[in-house]
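Recall that a protein's primary structure is simply its ordered list of amino acids. Everything else, from secondary elements to tertiary packing, is in principle encoded there. The following example makes that idea concrete.
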Amino acid sequence: MIKNKKQRYRFSEAPIWDLSRAYYEEKGMKAWNNDQVPQYITSNPMIAAAYAEMIFGFLQDRASQRHTTDPVTIVELGAGAGRLAYHVLLELYKLRDYAGISLPPFRYVMTDLAMSNVLAWKEHPALQSFIADGVLDFAKFDAVQDTELNLVMKGITISKGDVKQPLLVVANYFFCGIPQELLYIQDGNIYEADVFVEYPEHMDTLKPSEVLDQISLRYEHRRTPEYEQEAYPYRDVIAVYQAELEESHILFPAAGLTCLERLNQLSQEGFVLITADKGEHLLDYWRFSEPPELIMHGSFSLTANYHALQQVFEQRGAEALFSPHHYRNINVGCILQLDQPQDYSNTRLAYRRFIERFGPDEFYSMKEWVDQRIDSMGLQQILSFWRLGGYDAEFFIQSAKQISSLLPEARDEELLDIKRGIEIMWSSYYVMEQRYDLALDAGLVLFEMEMYEESKHYLEISIELCEDEEEIVSTVYYCLAICCFELEKIEEALHYLRKLLELEPDHEEALALLQGFEQ
């Protein structure tokens, strides 16, 4: 039930933002478990590879301008589960090592609002090699107010003017989740759309996600002439909305703009923003737009106003790169707030090749289509899409059953490609708490391919990672026993047979095998 009591707030000061903050601080890394908060679309290997190509292009551009001594700092805002940073660094290492050319050094700084996330990244097994190389660091960062970066590993503070190279800022699903102003345009006048909030009953007993799910919002317009005054820092953009729009609600990213301005102060050379979001850069989207609806996923998100970001920084001499076509799921942009941005040809070309021509949005649209048709796909189609997605673990899990069904007719070279894909996938797998067991599925596919050494390796990993021995299925022990027999590791085979019979005392095949070997 909803209380009758209502409270009125300026939209950017409404309690929904504090509730969102509380949700992430309470959940920590668990917020992304099993996609409670979506992370795949902005963190998969394909989008990470596209980002790494743009970053690599930027490093090439700085090298061509003879800026190779000072490190380039890459700051990821709201790094969340940490998966994007991991995949970007993996790909960036590959590009650097493959090219073998002189580049400036780089460091990657993952940031988040919740300190628990920062501490979790510090201990994550997949990130240890980057930490040891001195390439990866972490910082707690509040996008609404912080002006410095306090690096956890180095123990240093990055303050105004400390960065000698342009700052690279990565912001995925970031601008849609921080406070925004809500404006209304009518007859050339600017209004703020205040929000009336009706709270759930017994709110004190509810978790932040439950409150957000039950909260009720209603909007009312309030005339706000201060947006039309010359002193307002984003007056030129507001003037565009006054001239072009009518009866339209605008989510205005004042907090996002000031966050970028504060980050810009850290560098002596400007910044490059690489960002992906449910965000609109075309003015037409905002025509006659209705008040926003909260998109719920544990917390909530809104549409990011990329049009405002583009307008503000282009007026300051930046070059903004957004695809000329409409996006379907995720909009990826790049803003070069630099002196002479046209000189950064490698960065701009990377955007054209890996975002505009075919990018993360097109890939995700294809993946949605493929996900519904995996059962009718052939092995070559599965392998091709798996390669396109950077040998992603999620796609392998979805397609493992179909792969198994196609193995009897598979050619030897296809079997070898599957084996190679599994090796690449596992070497770049970022462990999160998910509902699937990747090692188990990999081991079972390899078992059906009669690659017993490799199958044994992954099945034993599956057992090691299982916290509750009672949850291990008997099939795992049976397959391991067969692998060991085939590899002539008889004692190990007998061990796994006995483990199997502890779970299933009447397992006929296991009893027969055990009896035969004991005799």
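The first strand starts at residue 2 and ends at 9. The CA atoms of residues 107 and 135 lie 5 Å apart.
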